[in-house]
Write a structure and sequence with these properties.
The complex is a heterodimer of chains A (221) and B (340). Chain A is mainly beta. Chain A has a single domain, classed as Double-stranded beta-helix, CATH 3.60.160. Helices cover 13% and strands 52% of the residues of chain A. In chain A, strand 1 (2-6) and strand 2 (13-18) form a beta hairpin. The N and C termini of chain A lie far apart (50 Å). Chain B is an alpha+beta fold and 340 residues long. Chain B has 2 domains: 4-107, Ribosomal Protein L30, Chain: A, CATH 3.30.1390; 113-330, 4-Layer Sandwich (Double-stranded beta-helix). Chain B is built from 9 helices and 20 strands. In chain B, a hairpin with a 6-residue loop joins strand 4 (121-125) and strand 5. In chain B, helix 1 (18-28) packs across helix 2 (33-42). The termini of chain B are far apart. The chains are: A mainly beta (221), B alpha+beta (340). Chains A and B meet through strand 12, helix 3 and helix 4 of A and strand 7, strand 8 and helix 9 of B. Strand 12 of chain A pairs antiparallel with strand 7 of chain B, so a sheet runs across the interface.
């Protein structure tokens, strides 16, 4: 499988070339164009109950799409994400990665996508009660609104809620106020996530709440 | 077909440290830093021979990206030279196919070293689409940040909310509050994400004054004074943004953001900017709200009112206007039906 992320940071998309016999799994509606003879199978996202859980708790879709190349030549496929923003690819080698709800886009064969309890902390932080866990071996594509910035954490660090996209299992999340009581409620920061541990986190350089706060006052009616 | 030879001149871009550039060079060609150092000692030297123009350009781009000066020479000419100068090529500009200038874009990700000695150290990532600035605060230093723009920070940063700008800021439609972050008991970093999609720019104020349109302010160091300034009714009403400008003065760093990409313009004579594209300008420039042509063009050209700057100074403009986005997006907003 040959893949390349194109379109810059503003409107990334994944250009995929499937070799004969290869399969790729994507979120439903993520395919924007493809060779006409690729086979699409819509599947419940890990079974009916799990799929329902994922839809309502993981911010994912009930169905996922599998694209298989059953022809005898390479076939092309483009995958996009619903929001403007950057897409990144991570090469999994038996390790695990947590993704925030909505960040998962596609994965190659050999990658397991699961749902894990994230705790009430995560719910209050508006990050959802569950988080996506990707594990196994292969490639995973994920994305968010804004540019994606990787950061190595060693110790403690504070990330504003809704800026966290992905993190390694060695990183734990806690919740705290941004400042004192007054500051937290009037300073527009409110609750923030405190991450602890040693590992990599990925943050998005824009948030939908920031966009809304900027654009909404500009509408006159 | 003509082939080209890529040579390094042995010089390092003025924006890059020598050892950093050599380390990056070693990584690029998968050699040890010691080997890279040796190659540099032998410079000017050919590092890629007889490749086509496209490949040569790719090498040049990569080298300039890490701050290594280089030139591409047509192989036929290089061989002539080689005959007279053994294997070492001269880096005289007269043999270069194209003169290289270090591109600021390629260096955007490196810390702005020129500012280190006066302002805070910082890096801008994600630009130009979604600029994100990470500022390193020395111990006990304070930075003022637009409310709700903080995205990440170290745990030793303490946040306080200040009521800045008074009643004026309330009327600009901006949030009333600026948050102050202080690094307590040691240095710390803060990552700042503005709301609008677009770029970020930095200016070091040395007793200058910059006026910003009301949503452009992102952050500044403690000693920069931020106030709102009444533009006057005509200017304010027609300038597309609001009746107030944000006036930043004093000494220190100032960061501001744009919707779209940012363009800096040195104004020496009169210059006209569409009102919706103004981000900011330096004090000393006079500005007037005028129409571009006659009344006919005012109403039918779609340009409406423009801002005419005169005097000497700088103007920053953004490559997109919010009004245009609002006008474009409005028709796709859900309509609330009133059932009363």
């Amino acid at each position: 499988m040959k893949t390349e992320i194109k379109g810059g940071k503003a409107f990334s998309y994944v250009d995929i070339e499937l070799a004969p016999g290869e399969t790729i799994t994507t979120e439903s509606d993520a395919m924007s164009s493809m060779a006409a003879d690729l086979d699409l199978t819509a599947q419940l996202n890990g079974g009916f109950v799990k799929g329902i859980l994922r839809k309502f708790l993981g911010g994912e879709t009930l169905f996922i799409s599998q694209f298989s190349n059953n022809t005898d030549g390479p076939r092309a496929l483009t995958v996009v994400q619903p929001t403007p923003g950057e897409i990144k690819c991570v090469e999994m080698t038996g390790d695990m990665l947590y993704l925030q709800p909505g960040a998962f886009l596609a994965c190659s064969e050999g990658v397991k996508v699961g749902l894990a309890w994230a705790g009430f902390t995560s719910l209050i932080a508006r990050e959802g009660l569950f988080r996506m866990v990707v594990s196994g071996e292969g490639q995973v594509w994920y994305g968010a609104y804004g540019a994606l910035i990787e950061k190595e954490i060693d110790g403690e660090y504070i990330i504003d809620t809704s800026h966290l996209v992905a993190y390694e299992p060695t990183v734990k999340l806690k919740l705290q106020l941004a400042g004192g009581i007054f500051s937290s409620f009037f300073g527009g920061e409110g609750l923030v996530t405190r991450v602890e541990g040693k590992g990599k986190v990925v943050i998005q350089s824009r948030s939908i709440s920031g966009l809304a706060g900027w654009i909404n006052p500009k509408f006159f009616w | 077909m003509e082939t080209y030879t890529v040579n390094i001149t042995g010089e390092i871009s003025e924006y890059q440290q020598r050892d950093e550039a050599i380390a990056a060079f070693a990584k690029l060609f998968s050699i040890s830093p010691a080997q890279a150092e040796k190659t540099f000692e032998k410079a000017p030297i050919a590092i890629k021979k007889n490749v086509d123009l496209e490949t040569a350009d790719k090498f040049k781009e990569a080298l300039i990206g890490i701050g290594v000066e280089c030139i591409a020479i047509a192989s036929s000419r290089a061989e002539d030279l080689a005959a007279t100068q053994a294997s070492v090529y001269s880096a005289e500009p007269d043999v270069s196919v194209q003169n290289n200038t270090s591109e600021p874009d390629a260096l955007a990700a490196t810390p702005m070293q020129e500012d280190e000695f006066k302002g805070f150290e910082f890096t801008i990532e994600g630009d130009p689409d979604y600029g994100f600035v990470t500022v390193q605060l020395p111990a006990d230093k304070t930075i003022k940040v637009e409310a709700s723009a903080m995205a990440t920070m170290d745990t030793n940063l303490n946040m306080k909310t200040k009521f800045k700008g008074g009643i004026g800021r309330m009327m600009t439609g901006e949030s009333l509050f600026i948050n102050e972050f202080t690094a307590e008991g040691g240095s710390g970093e803060i990552g700042i994400a503005p709301g609008a999609p677009g770029d970020l720019s930095h200016q070091y104020l040395d007793n200058q004054t910059i006026f910003l349109q009301n949503s452009a302010f992102v952050a500044c160091s403690e000693d920069v004074i931020v106030e709102t300034k009444w533009q006057g009714l005509t200017k304010g009403f027609f300038s597309g943004e609001s009746l107030f400008l944000i006036r930043c003065s004093g000494v220190g760093d100032l960061w501001f953001n744009t919707y779209g990409a940012i363009i800096e313009i040195d104004v020496t004579e009169d210059y006209v900017v569409d009102t919706g594209n103004i981000v900011g300008f330096t004090e000393g420039l006079d500005y007037k709200i005028t129409k571009v042509g006659g009344y006919k063009s005012l109403f039918f050209s779609g340009e409406g009112f423009v801002c005419r700057f005169s005097g000497q100074g700088k103007v920053w403009i953004q490559t997109r206007g919010v009004d245009a986005l609002v006008g474009w997006a409005h028709w796709f907003r859900p309509v609330k039906t009133n059932n009363s």
